[in-house]
Amino acid sequence: MEEVQKELDKLQQEKEELQHQLDLSKRALSLLAHDIRGISSNLKWVVDSLDNKEVPQDLVFGMLPELKTEVEINRQATENALQWVKYTAHGKGLNIEPVSVYNLYVALVERLRVLISEKQLRFQYIGDHSLTIQTDAYLISFILTQILANSIKYSYNGGTVTVSVMNDGRDKIKLSVVDQGMGIEDTTKLFSFDGPRFTGTQGEKGSGLSLIVVKELASLLAIDIWVTSEASETKFELNIPNTFLQKQNT
């Protein structure tokens, strides 16, 4: 009887997890659909205006930079959503392997070099260069890319972004990303669909989806993540397992 109850509890937990993912997926799709409808309407207006010649061309062409930005925002949001689906809805297995934290930092800074240069930011790494974690290399790279891009977005020109790592001695790597930007007034809904969509220090916009995806994907790697923020500093903190044990199906 006890074994039957354990099996029932396990099935109930799996049902709740699936319902959670379904609810999140529905809200993500709703958000994407809303954004795509908006940009589609704007593009249609531009095409119709050029075709009918009812609006001065200078005005139409003046909208193109903003439309280009909207297209890029939607592209990034769609890519984030696809990563989420790839690892959750499709049940993609994790590929656990040794990952050098410092080498990963160097690779990500190089990947974001253009964004960093545009704001003349200074990136610095503090901690042991030899630290290695057992994790999914692709997934941890995706997660940290989104967090670093977020720090760049809200940093002022000439600011500093600091990545600090340390081994807490309890099979955990503590990693923090600190920027000297505009700060976040309310961090309680930062990983929620109900949170506001913030604009970066140079007017950069976003879909509001990237950090939601980060939170969900981090949970797959048993990573705890939280944020603290003041008027001129925001800190993302991650507790990353040094030895990752995948859940085995029984």
UniProtKB/TrEMBL annotation:
Keywords: Cell membrane, Coiled coil, Kinase, Membrane, Transferase, Transmembrane, Transmembrane helix
Coiled-coil ranges per UniProt: 1-28
Gene3D superfamilies: Histidine kinase-like ATPase, C-terminal domain (3.30.565.10)
InterPro entries per the UniProt record, alphabetical: BphY/WalK/GraS-like, HATPase_C_sf, HATPase_dom, His_kinase_dom, Sig_transdc_His_kin-like_C
Topological type in the membrane: Multi-pass membrane protein
Subcellular location(s) per record: Cell membrane
Catalytic reactions of this protein: ATP + protein L-histidine = ADP + protein N-phospho-L-histidine
Domain (Histidine kinase): residue spans on this chain: 31-244
Enzyme nomenclature, EC number: 2.7.13.3
GO terms assigned for molecular function: kinase activity
Protein name: histidine kinase
Species of provenance: Albibacterium profundi
Species classification: Bacteria, Pseudomonadati, Bacteroidota, Sphingobacteriia, Sphingobacteriales
